Amino acid sequence: MYNQLIDLLLQIAPINKQDQKIICERFKPMQLKKGDYFLKENETCKLVGFLCKGIVRYFVYKNDNEATFEFTKENEFVSDYQSFNSQSTSIQNIQAIEDCELLTITYPELQYIYSNTEYGNLMGRIILEHRFDVMVKQIMAIYMQNQEERYRHSVRCYSDLTQRIPQYMIASYIGIQPQSLSRIRKKYR
Questions:
Q1: The pTM is what?
Q2: Residue 54 is assigned to a structural domain of this protein
C-alpha cells in the first residue's frame, strides 16, 4: 500500500528515504466496504485518503435525488478539501462503490509533513492544483456540455471504470435518468 503512495509522490518530487519514512508513519490504513461512507454530508471532513484499491463516488442530494459529480479510483486522493482545510461542515457524500483500501492522514499530520519534509509543500501544492483542475473541468462540463457530450466525456475520463461503476451512477453523473443513458449509449456506439 505504502509503495503506491510513495511511487506517486516520487513522480512529483525526489523524496529522500528519511522523508519517505516520515510520510509513511503519518498515513494510516483504512478499509471501506462497498456502500460504506468515507464522508457524509453535515460532517466535517477529518481525513485525506489515498485510494490504494477500489472506487469511491462523490455525490450530493439535489431535490431528494442523488447527484453524482465525481468518481475517484486507485492511486488518487479522496477528500472534501474545502471541508478538510477549513474544518467546516461538508455538503458532500463520499461513498465506496467497491471494497476500498486507503491510506489516510489527518490535518495535523499533513501539516507536519508540510513543515518537516523537504518537498512537502511542493507535493501538497501540486496535488491541490490537480484537484482544482479536475473540479473546474467538472463545473465547466455541467454548464457547457449537453448530456451526450457529458457521456462522451465520462467515457474518456472513466473508460477503465465503466464495467466497475453501476449504470445508474453513470446516469446520475451525466445528469439523466438510467433509461436515457441506454438511448445515448446506443447512439454513441
A1: 0.89
A2: yes
